[in-house]
Each structure stands twice: as structure tokens, then as C-alpha cells.
Amino acid sequence: MERVICLAMGYCFGLFQSGYIYGRLHGKDIRKYGSGNSGTTNALRVMGKKAGAAVLLGDVLKSILACMAARLLFGGRAPEMFPLLELYAGAGVILGHNFPFYMNFKGGKGIAATGGLVIALGDWRLLTIALTVFLLAVILTRYVSLGSVLGLITLFVTWTVLCVTGQIQAGPYTAESCMVMFLLAALGIWQHRANIVRLLHGTENKLWGGGKKQK
Predict the structure, then answer these.
(1) Please, what is the Cα angle at 136 between 134 and 140, to 5 degrees?
(2) Which of 160, 211, 198 is nearest to 45 (CA)?
(3) pTM for the complete prediction?
(4) How far apart are CA 138 and CA 89, in angstroms?
(5) Mind listing the pLDDT tens digit for each residue in 99-108?
(6) Cα separation, 147 vs 206, whole angstroms
(7) CB of 69 within 8 A of CB of 89?
(8) Does the CA dihedral 134-120-168-92 come out positive or negative?
(9) How far is CA 105 from CA 59, 100, 138, 196, in A?
(10) Which of 41-45, 192-196, 197-201 has the weakest average pLDDT?
(11) Distance separating alpha carbons of residues 98 and 114, to the nearest angstrom
């Protein structure tokens, strides 16, 4: 029941679509521009740096707040289940962000929300390693999608290693927490499937410096 509550609560937090709301406040439906999703990268490309920063902050914060709410609800009653319940809360946020029911289940791709979950988990090693891989990939290639995919893979591998070696105390929920993290990484990669195809064909848009136009 704790898992279901955290997942449902997280989904409600995820329904706060920062990109869509910001765009509406400035007279745009962000889903009709660029890549057509309401995430940070599209907001950056369509509405500029200020919009990108605002949307990034909003999407990160909703994961942090959802995890805080989960801790307030169950931190005293089921402390042995943390950080598992935080993972479920974060998973709910990502699902709400990616598949908001009031937007015909078309939202973002969940990368900023995943980043907020990593911050909420509070392990600097997870954040440092995954963020470093993401930034290096983006800086060297200028492909945000490639950085996102590599960052997700790195996050799952790092989490698994830290859990299995006992450096993250997941207790009897180690296998389950690794499975949840695997599913989150797999979902994120699946959300980038069109980007991956364009990367393979050399038609993916770069964050800066131009690039081949999409047909």
C-alpha cells in the first residue's frame, strides 16, 4: 500500500507541467513547436534560456517535493523502506510528467524529473557520476538526447553497484529498488527512441552550433 500511495502521489506532482504552463503564460502552446513535447530542452529551444531555466527548475522541484512528501508520510512508520519509497514517488512524478491525463498523455521525457529524484535521494555519488556523464556527452557532442541516454544508463549502473556493495542501505529491498531504477532508465531511453533513430542517421538536432534539419 505504501508503494501505491507514493506512486499515485508522485503522479499528481508530475501533472504540474512546467513547460506547458510557462508557455501558456507567454501565449504559446509549447506542444505545437519544436519537438512537440513540454520538457526543458524544447522550452529552451522554443522560448530561450530563461524559459529553459524556469522549466528545468519546476520539473526538478516537483520530484524533490514528492519525495519529501513521501518521507513525511512514511519516514516514521516505515524507515526501513527508504529509499525505496522515494523511488516510487519519483517514478510517479516521471509518469505524471511523461503521461499527463489532461494533455492526452503527451508530456515531456522525464529527464529533469529524474534529476530531481536523484537530488532527493541525497547520495552525492549518484548525482556527481550521472551528471558528469550527461554534461560531458552534451558538451562534446552537443546532443542533449545522447547525454540523457548515457546519463540514464550510468544512473542505473551506479545505483546497482552502490546497492549491491552495501554503500546504499536498501536492506531487503535491494533487488526491488534496482528493478525500479532499471524500469525508470528503460522508460527514459524509450522516450528517446525517435532521437536515437535520428542519432543513428545523423539527423538529430544539436543544442547549439546548427546541425542537419529534420525532414
Answers:
(1) 125
(2) 211
(3) 0.90
(4) 28
(5) 999 888 888 8
(6) 11
(7) yes
(8) negative
(9) 17, 5, 28, 21
(10) 41-45
(11) 11
